[in-house]
Amino acid sequence: MPIVTIQVTREGTAPDRQSVTAEEKAALIKGASELLLNVLNKPLEATFVVIEEVDTENWGLGGLPVLEYRRQLAAKMK
Amino acid sequence: MPIVTIQVTREGTAPDRQSVTAEEKAALIKGASELLLNVLNKPLEATFVVIEEVDTENWGLGGLPVLEYRRQLAAKMK
Amino acid sequence: MPIVTIQVTREGTAPDRQSVTAEEKAALIKGASELLLNVLNKPLEATFVVIEEVDTENWGLGGLPVLEYRRQLAAKMK
Amino acid sequence: MPIVTIQVTREGTAPDRQSVTAEEKAALIKGASELLLNVLNKPLEATFVVIEEVDTENWGLGGLPVLEYRRQLAAKMK
Amino acid sequence: MPIVTIQVTREGTAPDRQSVTAEEKAALIKGASELLLNVLNKPLEATFVVIEEVDTENWGLGGLPVLEYRRQLAAKMK
Amino acid sequence: MPIVTIQVTREGTAPDRQSVTAEEKAALIKGASELLLNVLNKPLEATFVVIEEVDTENWGLGGLPVLEYRRQLAAKMK
């Protein structure tokens, strides 16, 4: 009876996308459920998966909102 | 000082509703707070309740997004 | 398919107990599941309940660990 | 590698605001990350901060949705 | 910068084990991180995985603690 | 009425300690509560803080349990 919670920033994986697609979400659900089946022998039916998309201004890293963190990291890399 | 977190899919309990209503949310908050009072003797004032509504495409069960899971289950039942 | 998470301090409801008892946990699980059935018509089978017991030194309120908070509150009440 | 999750009601801190501002969120992220650095010596880079804004009708206290709780409390205080 | 939280009951996958083994935990961490890499192109370094083991008396299903639920289900199946 | 959840690995900040000390936890509780007061004007009384200590074998990063991740990182740095 596992519960897998996946928290990601609300962003697309391609320039023309604003968020995770329904297909990508289905792949996460399938993959997480199969992982619990393969590693701990939990039947697929027993696993709940919850995906939480978090707005980028609500996600922090390195003491900064994530988009600002990436900007500063990119600037340092130049 | 309990915290009760209730995660449900964002769906209505009747065909013409898209989500949990404010009345239903108030009933969940009241019921969860009274449960902690009755079982563990926690005063109503001490309990926080947080309701999280999760889009159906973000909720997985049986390795599938929940609406697809229900479709396949319904098909099997025929 | 709701998930109900109940976080409480790891304390007994009587002087001779150090923690929530198995009977009290069973009552929380039963009550939370019935609440979702009554309010949102979710079948008992569909609801997961997870109880998290938190050590009192890991729980804060009013800027203080909870036992210290209660001590100061009790002193003020005298 | 700490994770700090901050749950607040979706409300503004001034009458003309409907929610937490981006500046306030950045201050929460900075403050939480510095707290972990100062107290536990965790490098800023190691800390994730996630802010969750919860609609007021989804937040309960004293057995009531929070706005109703405040209304009743204000009435008692008169 | 995803966070994956995996909640499972504290049980072994073989009769002589009382809990998830370190090897199984490492496999869950590896699998969850690779899933985020494969589906959303998130670098392994960016993903945090947290495994929470929950005592069986703290996990409820069908309105019952999970071991009692399984007992009743097994009895029905006879 | 904010809730701040702080998840850290169960480790000491000095070689002779196995976990976060009670003093460090009190400092986290105080700091987190003051942060919400300073940034969002939330009264200290309104903020709950919950600290979750996670065993190092239950925390993953870079696709590895955290201690193994640090070992490989240290080896690369030589």
Question: TL;DR of this structure?
Answer:
Chains A, B, C, D, E, F: Pfam families: Tautomerase. With 78 residues, the first copy, chain A, is α+β, with helices and mostly antiparallel strands.
Task: Provide a descriptive summary of the structure in words.
6 copies of one chain form a homohexamer. The first copy, chain A, has 78 residues and is of the alpha+beta class. The first copy, chain A, has one domain (3-77): Macrophage Migration Inhibitory Factor. The first copy, chain A, is 40% helix and 24% strand. Chain A contains 2 helices and 4 strands, in the order E-H-E-E-E-H. Chain A has helices at residues 22-40, 66-77, and strands at 3-9, 48-54, 59-61, 64-65. In chain A, the strands form 2 sheets. A two-stranded parallel ribbon of chain A has the order 1-2. Chain A has a two-stranded antiparallel ribbon with strand order 3-4. In chain A, strand 3 (59-61) and strand 4 (64-65) form a beta hairpin. The longest helix of chain A has 19 residues, at 22-40. The radius of gyration of chain A is 16 Å and the shape is elongated. The first copy, chain A, starts with a strand and ends with a helix. The interface between A and E is medium-sized, with 26 and 26 residues. Strand 2 of chain A pairs antiparallel with strand 3 of chain B, so a sheet runs across the interface.
